[in-house]
Amino acid sequence: MNRNTSSVCALIVVAALSGACANTVRGVKQDTEKVAEKTAAATNTVDVKSALIADGRVDASNINVDTNSQTKTVVLKGTVPTAQQKTTAEAVAKDKAEGYTIVNQLAVAPAK
Q1: In Å, how far are 49, 77, 99 from 109, measured between CA atoms?
Q2: pLDDT tens for each residue of 11-26
Q3: What are phi and psi of 15, to 5 degrees?
Q4: What does the alpha-carbon distance between residue 88 and residue 57 come to, in Å, rounded to a whole number?
Q5: How many angstroms separate the CA atoms of 48 and 28, rounded?
Q6: In Å, what is the CA distance from 45 to each residue of 21, 25, 56, 58?
Q7: Closest Cα to residue 88, out of 66, 67, 108?
Q8: Which of 38, 48, 109 is nearest to 78 (CA)?
Q9: Facing residues of 68 across strands?
């Protein structure tokens, strides 16, 4: 009887450890996917901001770019001197962040 009980206990321990390993692998995979998403978002943010800075038609000095990879959204915040620059900034962002929705929250505040 003791031998059977020991065997059953050993099987339970092995099964529990196998399940724990599977959960660990899933957790690592999910963590890796989250890191990849955040990296992609950061890359999009840098790409959009760099393109805005490089574009001579837009004064990007007061533009903040935020990217959310989960919602596939790029948000432009801040100010530009003209309505044309606001429109151009949105077009540049759309060009650089393919597959993302652009939310243009830029305010027009003429230079003083």
Answers
A1: 19, 12, 29
A2: 566 666 566 666 676 6
A3: -65, -40
A4: 7
A5: 30
A6: 36, 30, 19, 16
A7: 108
A8: 109
A9: 73
